[in-house]
Write a structure and sequence with these properties.
The complex is a heterodimer.
Chain A: E1 3-11, E2 14-19, E3 23-29, E4 42-48, E5 51-57, H1 58-61, E6 73-80, E7 83-89, E8 91-99, H2 113-117, E9 118-124, E10 127-132, H3 134-138
Parallel strand pairs in A: 2-10, 5-7
Antiparallel strand pairs in A: 1-2, 1-8, 3-6, 4-5, 6-7, 9-10
Chain B: H1 5-31, H2 35-54, H3 58-75, H4 83-106, H5 115-124, H6 140-150, H7 166-172, H8 178-189, H9 196-202, H10 208-224, H11 232-256, H12 262-285, E1 287-289, H13 291-294, H14 297-308, E2 312-317, E3 322-324, H15 325-346, H16 350-355, E4 362-371, E5 374-381, H17 388-397, H18 403-408, H19 411-415, H20 439-448, E6 452-458, E7 462-470, E8 475-483, E9 486-491, E10 495-501, E11 508-511, E12 514-519, E13 522-528, H21 529-532, E14 544-551, E15 554-560, E16 562-570, E17 584-589, E18 595-599, H22 601-625, E19 628-636, E20 639-644, E21 648-655, E22 660-662, E23 665-670, E24 673-679, H23 680-684, E25 694-702, E26 705-711, E27 713-721, E28 733-739, E29 742-747, H24 749-756
Parallel strand pairs in B: 2-4, 9-18, 13-15, 20-29, 24-26
Antiparallel strand pairs in B: 1-3, 4-5, 5-7, 6-7, 8-9, 8-16, 10-14, 11-12, 12-13, 14-15, 17-18, 19-20, 19-27, 21-25, 22-23, 23-24, 25-26, 28-29
The chains are: A mainly beta, B alpha+beta.
Domain CheW-like (chain A): 3-141
InterPro entries (chain A): CheW (IPR039315), CheW-like_dom_sf (IPR036061), CheW-lke_dom (IPR002545)
Pfam family, one (chain A): CheW
Chain lengths: 141, 780
């Protein structure tokens, strides 16, 4: 059975995962530049080795209060729709290899903003991981 | 043909460059026949013919051969240069261009018809009976050699020393044997006109690929000493790397200022210097003279002026001025449009010119020069000029400006309306300038690259179109400012001046709630950056700065909390997700490593327009509600006279000696017009203050007519309600009110104006200013 690798992270206690193929790197960063008038989900801009990266606050995408941005926030930097974009998350987890066979569609109980961002679920040990649709998660329009 | 690919590519590049030169040369030739020019043109065509023969492009060869035949007759003086011969030669150049384009696209000549062109050229050969019909033998060696060098060195002056003989190269590569080469050389000496490579090929002594390689090597060698061709992508990536380096340098320099270690400080300074030089050097590699664009323009002008029966001479000043190649590309279309427009609409027909006392031939001057970190490119014609009043009327007619707004605008601002979308002063739409590619597109294109457009025109004397272009796109001079806790960057090109507002000598005032600043007497609309960015607006108007900006032909001020410094920043494109906000032009990384947003000045300008519009709406509302208005309080003798502020367009000082008399009225010359003066002191029967060197005047403008009310001084701008004023039975006074514990009289503006210019309202209708307060042009 084919396996796929997922980079995992937590937002508000929920475990999410993105296909590692999309992930450029993971890092903590504390200096963000606010973008007035930008969509609410934009946490700010930061300088990644000379590249200007927009950070999308996953908490806002999930209908939660935004990150306070007053300290280091974890970034999962992805390639979505041909540009690098960062997802601001609460906590970084491990990279896990998962059987495609254990993939299941999102449960009916999953509702709200998260439903639109999730492709499906995987069972990992004693908890569920929600596989994120990268383009949808990074979409701030 | 694949193995020839590289040679064909090189041939194409060089031929295109040569053709651009050719257009210019031919037009110059028509003006002033010169043997040198003819020789140069002949060589260019000869080169293309030779190479195309070698590369087996038959049509190209036949066409250039015809051209060459005509040119050689012109060069040798067998027949004179006439407009018809030039037209035929230009047509030939166009045909060559079409063939080259086809070759570039599909590696084949395609089915571009050339017979007509060949006939047209041959028809010009005076002795048309025997036009040399058959193509001469392939002239490959000379051809490629010349084409290669002629790009950078004068054509026909190849550096012979640097070129190794073809035979030697062929022998070295093992593609031919010594004896064959010697035999071929002997044939040449014996009168065989074919080139060495051609002889060897014809006799089967070598193979085409080897000759190509040898020719290429020869070509490269001969140019290598002076120049090399570099892939633009490579230059772009070097440019990006240098951008990064500049950034790191800035960060290091900032960090090093705090460092105690003298070695670090010294090393940083050195790095600073080297980086600057490297940056300059890399930027230079991308620079090309603007002549590259201009070369095409005499041809454009010639074709157009022939079509319209006009006589236009093209003059160029500063053709050597260099611009970044990407900018050059971006400027091409706007510049061509301006030139077309100048020939079409600017320069008059010879008859009109003579009637106006000008020479029958108009002059179109292209001018380029460096100025404070920018390049200015001007297209100047000595034509009819633009009638600012026509522009004003048209802008209103087209709904670009509200009538009241137009009436209040200064000529300069009015003139900028020609760049508004949907504006065209052309009385009739011609197929040249009225094709949707309008001045608004020129403006958009230039502003897209961080430049600015401007127009200056004197009726009857001509027009100057001015493009201000940054030297490069990637690195800009920027002013860093703070608004609240955030730092932003404003492109320096738009910044005119900075004003510190201390709240005492300099302060922000409000017209119907919209902030304004009196900059040397003129009301400058202000945008609060914090408010424009949707942040809570600061409440304290003291200790802030006004950055005076210009864009969209509008001068306005942006209120910021702090001004830091100017630095060179590297422009980073902003992700498309912020495009809709429309207030950011990009992002950059500052010396401290933080990202800062670059503000889009034209977008801010539109916001200042918005606030101006809002204040006008407020005026209207204020009038209908009849509640309050702002008053300009002036001193006239010992009395205080108030004028509604929104009727005021400018506050001016005139030199006393500038005042002249027309009949029994005083006037001054003002912005090219006659401005009637009315002294409020005499109107109101007040004893005036003793005359000084200058007089203070409140300029009132409505529908293009202006008048100046002379006062002894400007005291204040205040908010006043209309309810508390007492009726006063006095000529020219509507009533009085108490402002700042002093009785202040309210001027009957209408009466004052009629006293100075009884015709003032003759054309503007009676309904204006029937009410007293708040009824300014905004309400008309």
């Amino acid at each position: 059975m084919a396996t796929r690798q997922y980079a995992t992270f937590e937002v508000d206690g929920t475990l999410f995962g993105v296909d590692v193929a999309h992930v450029q790197e993971v890092l903590a960063f504390s200096e963000y530049t606010a973008v007035p008038l930008a969509p609410a989900a934009i946490g700010g801009l930061f300088n990644l080795r000379g590249q200007v990266i927009a950070a999308v606050d996953m908490r806002v995408q999930l209908g939660l209060p935004r990150h306070t941005m007053d300290g280091a926030v974890m970034n999962v930097i992805l390639h979505a729709e041909d540009e690098a974009v960062s997802l601001l998350v609460d906590k970084i987890g491990e990279v896990v290899a998962l059987d495609e066979g254990s993939f299941e569609p999102p449960p009916d109980t999953l509702t709200g903003p998260a439903r639109a961002l999730v492709l499906g679920t995987f069972k990992i040990e004693d908890r569920l991981m929600l596989a994120l649709d990268v383009d949808a998660a990074a979409d701030t329009r | 043909m694949d193995d020839l690919g590289e040679i064909v590519d090189e041939f194409l590049v060089e031929s295109h460059e040569n053709l651009d030169q050719l257009d210019g040369d031919l037009v110059a030739l028509e003006r002033e026949p010169s043997r040198d020019l003819l020789s140069s043109i002949f060589r260019t065509i000869h080169t293309i013919k030779g190479t195309s023969g070698f590369l087996a492009f038959g049509r190209l060869e036949a066409l250039t051969h015809a051209g060459e035949s005509l040119l050689s007759r012109l060069r040798d003086g067998v027949q004179p240069v006439t407009p018809e011969t030039i037209t035929a030669l230009l047509a030939m150049v166009d045909g060559v261009r079409a063939l080259l384009a086809s070759i570039e696209e599909g590696r084949v000549e395609g089915d571009i018809p050339i017979d007509g062109l060949v006939a047209q050229v041959n028809a010009q050969i005076a002795d048309a009976a025997a036009p040399p019909a058959d193509a001469p033998p392939a002239d490959a060696a000379a051809g490629t050699g010349e084409a290669t060098v002629s790009v950078d060195a004068p054509a026909g002056a190849p550096d012979e020393e640097a070129r190794r003989p073809l035979g030697e190269l062929l022998v070295e590569s093992g593609a031919a044997v010594d004896t064959d080469v010697n035999w071929a050389l002997e044939k040449q000496t014996g009168g065989d006109e074919r080139r060495l490579g051609a002889i060897l090929l014809d006799e089967g002594k070598t193979n085409p690929a080897a000759v190509n390689d040898a020719l290429a090597a020869q070509g490269r060698r001969s140019v290598a000493d002076a120049t090399i061709r570099v892939d633009v992508d490579l230059l772009d990536s070097l440019m990006n790397l240098v951008g990064e380096l500049v950034l790191v340098r800035n960060q290091l320099v900032r960090a090093a200022t705090d460092a105690a270690d003298p070695v670090i400080v010294r090393t940083t300074q050195r790095l600073n210097l080297i980086t600057s030089e490297l940056q300059e050097g890399i930027m230079k590699t991308r620079m090309q003279p603007i002549e590259q664009l201009w070369l095409k323009l005499p041809r454009v002008v010639r074709d157009l002026s022939t079509t319209f029966g006009k006589q236009v001479r093209v003059a160029m000043v500063g053709a050597e001025t260099e611009l970044d190649r990407s900018l050059l590309e971006a400027v091409k279309d706007p510049l061509t449009h301006l030139v077309r427009n100048a020939v079409d609409h600017g320069i008059e027909s010879p008859e009109q010119r003579v009637a106006a006392g000008k020479s029958a031939e108009g002059t179109l001057t292209l001018k380029a020069y460096h100025e404070s970190g920018h390049v200015t490119v001007e297209v100047i014609d000595d034509g009819a000029g633009i009638d600012v009043e026509k522009v004003r009327a048209k802008a209103v007619e087209r709904g670009i400006l509200a009538a009241a707004e137009a009436a209040r605008m200064e000529p300069r601002e009015v003139m900028m309306q020609v760049f508004a979308p949907g504006f065209s002063t052309a009385e009739k739409v011609t197929n040249v300038s009225g094709r949707g590619v309008g001045m608004d597109v020129v403006k958009t294109n230039i502003e897209r690259i961080g430049g600015a457009v401007d127009v200056d025109s004197t009726l009857g004397e001509g027009t100057v179109w001015r493009l201000t272009i940054p030297l490069t796109l990637a690195i800009i001079q920027a002013l860093t400012i703070d608004s609240g806790d955030d730092r932003y960057v404003i492109p320096q090109v738009a910044v005119h001046e900075l004003v510190y507002v201390d709240g005492e000598n300099t302060r922000i005032e409000y017209v119907s709630g919209a902030p304004v600043y009196r900059l040397r007497g003129k009301l400058l609309p202000l945008v609060r950056l914090d408010a424009a960015l949707g942040r809570p607006a600061g409440t304290d108007d003291r200790g802030v700065y006004i950055v005076v900006l210009q864009a969209d032909g509008r001068r306005f001020g942006v209120v910021v909390d702090r001004v830091l410094n100017t630095e060179e920043v590297v422009v980073k494109a902003l992700t498309s997700r912020f495009k809709e906000i429309g207030i950011y032009a990009g992002a950059t990384i500052l010396g401290d490593g933080k990202v800062a947003l670059i503000l889009d000045v034209p977008a801010l300008a539109r916001r200042s327009q918005l606030s101006a519009d809002l204040s006008e709406e407020d005026d209207a509302a204020a009038e209908s509600a009849d509640d309050s208005s702002r008053l300009l309080v002036t001193a006239v003798g010992a009395r205080r006279i108030a004028v509604p502020l929104d009727t005021v367009t400018r506050l001016e000082q005139f030199a006393a000696e500038a005042i002249e008399w027309v009949g029994n009225r005083e006037v001054v010359q003002y912005r090219g017009r006659i401005l009637p003066l009315v002294r409020l002191s005499s109107l109101l029967g007040v004893e005036a203050a003793p005359p000084g060197d200058t007089v203070s005047a409140v300029v009132y403008t409505e529908r293009g007519r202006s008048i100046a009310l002379v006062v002894d001084g400007i005291d204040d701008i205040v908010e006043s309600t209309t309810t508390d004023h007492e009726e006063v039975d006095d000529h020219g006074i509507l009533g009085s009110t108490v402002i700042a514990q002093r009785v202040t009289e309210l001027l009957d503006v209408r009466r004052a104006i009629l006293a100075a210019d009884p015709q003032f309202y003759a054309t503007t209708g009676e309904s204006v200013l029937t009410g007293a307060w708040g009824a300014g042009p905004g309400a008309a």
